[in-house]
Amino acid sequence: MYICVCNGITDREIRQCVASGVCSMSDLECSLGVGASCGRCREAAVEILEQSRSPAQVVFSSALA
Ligand code: FES
User: How does DSSP classify residue 24?
Assistant: First the structure.
């Protein structure tokens, strides 16, 4: 399913990106361009990001906050 229509990014691509180590929305934006144009996809992208992160990524990103 397309999440970011502006950049043609699917939920699968976001999940693959998270599996390769991306753990924040800003990283997703830099890697795929998700949310970099109109921004309407950001909420859905964050939801997929949070669902896809491994427990280690959650601990790591919490430590950075
Ligand atoms: S839908 Fe993702 S930036 Fe517009």
Answer: S
Report d(CA 41, CA 18) in Å as an integer: 16
Query: What would the pLDDT profile of 18-63 be if each residue is shown by its tens digit?
Result: 999 988 999 999 999 999 999 999 999 999 999 998 776 666 666 6
3-class DSSP assignment, residue 4: strand
pTM: 0.84
Per DSSP, 10 falls in state: E
Strands (E), the chain: 2-4, 9-10
Nearest residue by C-alpha to atom 1 in ligand 1: 4
- Per-residue CA distances from 26 to 21, 29, 41 (Å): 13, 5, 13
Residue 37 Cβ inside 6 Å of ligand 1? The answer reads: yes
Measured in Å, residue 7 CA sits from the centre of ligand 1 at 6
